[in-house]
Records
---
Amino acid sequence: MTLVKIRKVISGIIFVLFVLLFLGPEKWSVFLSDVIAPFQFVPSLVQTATAPSGLFMAGFIFIVLMTLIFGRVYCSFLCPLGTLQDLIIAGSRRLGLLPGHAFAGPHNGLRYALLASTAAAAVIGSLSLVSLLDPYSLAGRFFSHFLQPLVVGAYNLGIAALKPFDVYWYPKQTAFVPLSVLAATAAFFLLILYLAATRGRLYCNTVCPVGTFLGLVARFSVFQLTVNPKACSECVRCENVCKAGCIDSHNAFVDMSRCIGCLNCLDACSQSAIRYRRRQRQPHAGAWSPSRRGFVMGGIAAAAALLALNTKLRAWIDIRRAQAEPPVTPPGSRDIAHFTRACTACSLCVSVCPTQVLTPAFMDFGASGLMQPKMNYEKSFCDYECSLCSRVCPTGALASLSLEEKKLTQIGEAELLENICVVYVDHNNCGACGEVCPTHAIRFADKKNILYPEIDRQYCIGCGACQLACPTAPRSIVVHANPVHKKAEKYISPETTVGQKKPADDEFPF
């Protein structure tokens, strides 16, 4: 088996596992989140920086070491967005839209400016550019927002088709995604689709900050692709199959900062003029190359722009947060500040949530929390018996919680608006909120055979079940976010006497 076939098999397996991570059964998602996510660059980097984990730290070190030894093989073997682009490229070639590739100069000013901007924004506490450009998060949002509804729709159609045969299964639902988030995801996917179908891996080598960073590391890799000018017949076959457009066969030059390690050129060369060998000085590797100049100039421009905008951006974020109540963040996020600093908006938690209470929010968390998920109690509620979101989060934005810990995590507090509640306004019994409260935080005071709801906040965890169940419009009970999560008290029934034995019954002493 050739190296190209091995690469295709490995990347295909990783891609299938990635699809199952977002679209598979809940147990699979939990298992695969520990298998796939540690070997994705941004999740492993963010987890290592914000909530160090041995497995994710090992994954990050593995990616960097592999790049230092073999170059940007991550982009062809492990990156799900890279494999998706390869599928598009293969399809476009079969349709004759992209008959072949050719060497093209790098857009160093743009790619290094985007890398510097993304890094600088992350340093000041904003992952918005990471959320927009990171290949893992982009692929996750595409599967969660577009592919999952198609799969669920097909599943529900199958259920409907089986009803005449007395076969019944529960239909499934998908999360609500705002139009603004759908539009942003669709715009980037269409951009990637167009670039892959017409320019190969141009997105990876011009826009993607992960590709640019790994390209800098790959310049010093131990093994690199080199062209032997004496053996080369300049047939340009290697150029035709190079999806990165980084092989200049006429000058016997391979730009390793843009080479994605697909290895297609090795199979294409009939003269064995291009080989993987220990790094040698390339003809174009001068002391002051255009790529270095692009990196320096792009980095200076990006840093200057961010310094100029930093004060205004911070002021805008503070004003927005002061004007609007912050959204409720999922269990395990600890506090809003930590959540917005660590979440890359991959939407994995959105896709696995069984009640679909999580909604990607466009800018509800401000400019630094672009497309990060919030608890949407107008659409659903947080299942008391579930902690899936905290168990699958790949970046540490949601710390893993046991079910018992989650049941006592107070992400928000419910407030009863007596001026709207039908019981207080019309003096009619309702009780909808108390019937669904899983923690007994809602009690009822009997006044002339009318049960008036009251909230004991020490037991409330902010699950939103009461808000969803409330029949009034607008809701007479709403959940307010805890900017810093608290621990609720565990409800103990008054009938239970702790530490005492139940007195024996006289009639049945045994």
---
Amino acid sequence: MKIFSLKHNAINSTIRKIRESQEISYKNVNKTVASIIDDVKKFGDKAIFKLTKQYDNFDLNLQNLKVKRSLITNSSTTLNSDLKKSIKKAIQRVSFYQKKKLPRSFLFKDNLGNKLGWSVSPLDSVGIYVPGGTASYPSSLIMTAVLARVAGVKKISIVTPPSQHGLNKAVLFVADCLKIDNIYQVGGAQAIAALAYGTKTIEKVNKIVGPGNIFVATAKKQVFGDVGIDMVAGPSEVLIIGDKSSSSEIIAADLLAQAEHDINASSILVTTSKTLAQKVLADVKKLTKESPRRNIISKSLKNNGKIFLMNSLESCIDFSNSFAPEHLELLVNSPERLLSKICNAGSIFLGKNSAEAFGDYIAGPSHVLPTGGSASFSSPLSSLDFIKYSSVTKISDKGLKLLGKNVEVMAESESLFAHKNSISLRLRNKK
């Protein structure tokens, strides 16, 4: 990790270089994933068994593809009681927050007596991908499944890679708390294909959400359109804005918290204080040596850890808005005063107490966030992603008379004469 002096006119070119270094080639992966999807569409469960043996070296069959209800129910028996309490608290807080976001169906009358509005309905079914191995986290399921439940989704299916050591008990406990029975031991692109198109055992869903590796992300891209998806997420990232009032130790700790995700994670500080930058760099080195995950952290910070020294707080904000980070921490004096100036960020954390880790686990907003600059055009996953709108229209007699002529004129101008006639017929019948 190094300190760089950055002038305002170099912000865009610097960010462009950072984003270019993060780009991943999907060329070979696209072909492999397309073949996997085609296999699952043609051969269903049999393809899943074959592909799981090929990629996960695990023998799946009709008896163990779907996780038995008894395993889900008994998941809590070996879990630490403090962990179970913490999971329940997280579910409670995420539910509370996400309920606040939900809109209601609404009808109103315009000045012609027409009734207009919208009807809000939950999606019928959702599939959730939960990564396996060292990335199998109960928080990933909380931050997706709770949102779907809050929105009113009745059918939720979970897919997660199989393991010789058994599935993550904490993940099963979360599923039990949320009354999710459909859990399938299948991962990778084949799991996404099964959710998108259905098999004899796994029912097709309306939307697929959840993080995954490059094969999962590519599969989601390829099935989009046949089914909805949340987003195609890349490596995680944090951008911290600090000033002379900031704690170098807290900033260093938060940079490391991001870096320990994986070697491709990005941890960036922008600041106006040279003294702070130097202290942070020293604290980063000290805390890295003390961390159990120092190997991952060291590689991550070497690849993507940066400190940018800028000449004004306004330049720091401009950098942030151009970078559009997944996580943005405003560790400055009176952070609320900057909030209105931030227009591109997935999740914003205000002040020294607001560690990004709160957002990962328990604050309330989902930790499924836009990455790679996509916060400039997309939003965090929320309960809104599990509902849909139907527009509602009821034309009054007055509306038919006064607006019908406009429709006739516009339809004729587009040579859509049946459209015009559907209005003319109604107008004649009203005379």
